[in-house]
Specification:
single chain; mainly alpha; two-stranded antiparallel sheet; 11 helices
Length: 279
Amino acid sequence: MTTLTRRGWRGDKRTEPEEDVAADRELPDDDSDNSKAPRLTLMEEVLLLGLQDKEGYPSFWNDCLSPGLRGGILIELALRGRIHLEPLTARKKRLLDRKVLLKSAAPTGDVLLDETLRHIKASESMETVQTWIELLTGETWNPFKLQYQLRNVRERVAKGLVEKGILTTGKQSFLLFDMTTHPICDTTEKQRLLRKLQDSLLERWTGDPRRMDRRLLALLVLAHASDVLEKALGGLEDTQYEMAMSRVRDVLEADAELEAAQGKGTEVIWAVLAAFNRA
């Protein structure tokens, strides 16, 4: 299996009975100041952070966004009560050794999430978080596993943002090819997202990952994994930027095993971070 690599710092199948759609209930977000704002998935938030506003596409040098979006899919499924990690055992204590189990196959209403759910349910063997990220990205040498690849994820996430009125669709011609672009037509949501992320590291800093809202912690982890975090904090003044990045490092360099064990409902979040930070 191909090893998942990262740029940046340091770089029998058991299926539980299907639960009611009430599994979608989550801990309340801490950004309830705008109740009319469209609810975005973690994948949509990460893509929005990575897009260049006017150009409508991410940086060509970013090779981390695609696997980052797949990691976001797994975390979103966990937060919605659809998947979880197998319980700790004497032989399987490490996050990256524990398999992903299906908790509920109830549809989420999101095409990408439901397609991933079907893959997990249909898989003949249980896989770890890291392996699922690789399979969903298509980074596997096993031809029998290529069926699990999610295709055109970036474009499909962008179309979801178009439907919500945040992006529009255009086309840009380059020397040898034309590319579909998605410029931001309503910057309100992105500005809210940037403010939420920046404030969480400055004015509303808790000093403890276990006290952070789960979706906010997930967004921080995924923004790092997708290599869009520095861009999201780039608008801060120098002193604020240095403080924010110092606090980011405190979170990202925390003991993932310990944080997962003591942070309720965060195991998959920390497993995704461990997968991207694995040497």
